[in-house]
Each structure stands twice: as structure tokens, then as C-alpha cells.
Design a protein that fits this description.
This protein is α+β, with helices and mostly antiparallel strands. It has a single domain, classed as Gcn5-related N-acetyltransferase (GNAT) (Aminopeptidase). 36% of the residues lie in helices and 27% in strands.
């Protein structure tokens, strides 16, 4: 069962897996960045298997005009060495259930265009592409 990372030690334990998704993160800055995001409504969840973190997810609840209250997933990654063992599915189902329990009308996430295996995973679990996400680096 996933748990929320609430202590600095729990957050720090998530770094190695999160780094696989976000390789520009630096270990000595990770806890501070997560703490800043938590002050803005971000939650970091982790799933352990055999006493090691295998899946992490960063998410937030937000209200948007077009869909109402939504659980938005910023980050979702399973350790490369632990993929295809059901850990990602466990985390995804936990997130969706949390969205339902907190009264969200939608569940959403963005996924980089290069992450084709992740896209196949999301399609298998009923997620569909509803929008394009555009950005302008400043």
C-alpha cells in the first residue's frame, strides 16, 4: 500500500526512483524542493517492496474551470529494476481511489512525448489523451 512521504527521511528515500524520471534533480536539493512544493499543495507518495522504494508519485488536488476538482499527477515512476511487477498499477489505482474519496470529478496527468512505454501503461488502465500541453521556457 502506498504511503505519503512526510518526514525528510521518507522524502530522501524517494530520490533514487524520482531521479530516474527527473534526472536533473540533485540529491542535496531534493528534500528542500519537495518541501517547497508541499507548501503549495503537492503530495509525495511512495510504494515499498522488500524494504525499498519501488514507485513514487507526486500529485496535487486542484480546481480548474473545465473539469472542476481534479487530482493531477505531476510525477509517476517505478524503478527500472522493478517494472512489470504490478507496482505502478498499485500506485495508479491508489491515486485514482484517492481522487474518488476526495470528491474529484477527474484524474489527470501529463506524460512526456518520449515516454512511449508509460503511455502504453496508461492506455491499458483506461486513461485517454484529452488535451495537448503546451509550454514556453522562460
Amino acid at each position: 500500500m502506498p504511503h505519503l512521504a512526510e518526514t525528510d527521511a521518507e522524502i530522501d528515500r524517494c530520490f533514487a526512483v524520482m531521479h530516474q524520471l527527473r534526472p536533473t534533480l540533485l540529491p542535496d536539493q531534493f528534500v528542500a524542493i519537495i518541501r517547497t512544493q508541499q507548501s503549495e499543495g503537492y503530495h509525495l507518495a511512495f510504494l515499498e517492496h522488500q524494504d525499498r522504494v519501488v514507485t513514487v508519485a507526486g500529485f496535487r488536488m486542484q480546481h480548474v474551470l473545465w473539469s472542476g476538482k481534479t487530482l493531477y499527477v505531476d510525477d509517476l515512476v517505478t524503478d527500472e529494476a522493478a517494472r512489470s511487477q504490478g507496482h505502478g498499477e498499485t500506485m495508479l489505482q491508489w491515486l485514482i481511489q484517492r481522487a474518488r474519496e476526495t470528491g474529484c470529478g477527474t484524474f489527470s496527468l501529463d506524460s512526456g512525448t518520449h515516454r512511449k512505454e508509460a503511455h502504453a501503461f496508461y492506455f491499458r488502465h483506461g486513461l485517454r489523451i484529452s488535451d495537448f500541453h503546451f509550454q514556453l521556457p522562460l
